[in-house]
Amino acid sequence: IQRLFEEAAHFLQPANSFVVIKGWVRTARDQKQFAFVQVNDGSNVSGIQVVVDSSVPSFDKVASLATGCSIAVSGYVRKSPGAKQPIEVQATSVELLGPVASNYPLQKKRHSFEFLRTIAHLRPRTNSFAAVARVRSALAAATHAFFQSRGFIYLHSPIITASDCEGAGEMFRVTTLPPGATEEQADFFGQRASLTVSGQLSAEAYACAMGDVYTFGPTFRAENSNTKRHLAEFWMIEPEMAFASRDDAMKNAEEYVKHGVSFLLETRMEDLQFFDQFIEKGLVRKLEQVRDLAFARVSYTEAIEILSKATEKFEFTPEWGSDLQTEHERYLAERHFQRPVFVFNYPACIKAFYMRVNDTEPTTDGRRTVAAFDLLVPGIGELIGGSQREERYDVLCSRMQELGLSEEQYWWYLDLRRYGTVPHAGYGLGFERYVQFCTGMENIRDVIPFPRYPGHCEF
Ligand code: 4AD
Ligand code: MG
């Protein structure tokens, strides 16, 4: 259906060309000589209007076609006399392919997103979820286009792994549970293994051989959090660049986020306008600004100063040495800077072992920081986390010791520092948060087809 609209817009179809369309009925109604059926096949928001006159063999049955049944329509595309749509189909035949039971849960009315989560297998038939799926697909394509056009190698990092990249202990154990085995015996063929929380460490190995690489795959976090921004299974894009600094990584991140946004503005305007109208007022304007304005940059220490001076009442008092809370992140992006903002150089004590210790940039009173950065965006908070990596073997070892990580377990990661080490940097962007940001969808559970969160893995 979308192709018909595009061809009509570009005058590629001769007037009155014959077409066959297949899709699902949204509504059918009767006006004496004519019946009108609104058909949607998932390719666009509007679907297309089918006009059926009494000469069509199945005319009698058309007006009573129920919402949700599938049909095939043959007919001629023509300019629509109505103002609502540019084109419509004048049917020569309408064939019912799949009737719909009378208890179809998606009757023509607005349903809450909460209810739709209970029928995740049917929700792509609604306008909102189909639009999310199209935007998500377009953003994935834009992601590959962006990195491929810059010569990055797409790396498939493993899902099953023994290393905890973030060191936060939020991993799902992987088990082979032979009949009769106890939970304690369960393991990955005699080895302890988990689902990956991040592909970063593998990406570092390839970056330290090939320069620029990126991963784009599912990652898993066993944090039992019931928030609008956390899932147990989410997709992450993790670029890793050799011979690169923290600033190089931030520059690349800004360009990547802008590239995806511009691509949507160019290719998915109908969907964006739909979200602008029904989900987040001003969304298109916001995205145009993201595309056009430079992102802000502020050090963690300055960010804490800004937050301390803010008149806003925070639940958690902002304090140097503790992590920024979502309320702080959103204040910085939404109120103070009013645009995406990079916060860089976080205290070492709250960050992962692999982040490069800053020794050339002393902080105000000598407190140790690492060359980390987060990108905070309005409406979401943290969209990206990244850093320059610690490439110095000795410094890395002593950081690992401090944090109680075993050098034996990370032997291969340390090898990268033993053999031809280089400054390198990278980041991880949470794909669902990116889709949320670009659609205005409030809950992360509504931007992934089948969300995984505590108590939910049915579909
Ligand atoms: O900040 P995080 O934990 O960073 C890493 O995993 C690094 N290894 C990335 C890297 O440098 N290569 O996660 C990165 C991003 C976050 O900024 C957030 O957008 C997203 O992943 N994220 C989640 N998204 C949905 N549900 C969760 N539970 C998420 N946890 C992190
Ligand atoms: Mg983070």
TrEMBL record:
Per the database record, which ranges form the Aminoacyl-transfer RNA synthetases class-II family profile domain? 134-449
Transmembrane ranges, per UniProt, are none
Transferase as UniProt keyword: no
- Keywords, alphabetical: Aminoacyl-tRNA synthetase, ATP-binding, Ligase, Nucleotide-binding, Protein biosynthesis
Any GO MF annotation of the entry? ATP binding
GO BP field: asparaginyl-tRNA aminoacylation
Give EC number(s), comma-separated.
6.1.1.22
According to the UniProt record, one GO cellular component term is: mitochondrion
The entry sums up its family as follows: Belongs to the class-II aminoacyl-tRNA synthetase family.
Listed name of the protein:
asparagine--tRNA ligase
Q: Which organism is it from?
A: Cyanidioschyzon merolae (strain NIES-3377 / 10D) (Unicellular red alga)
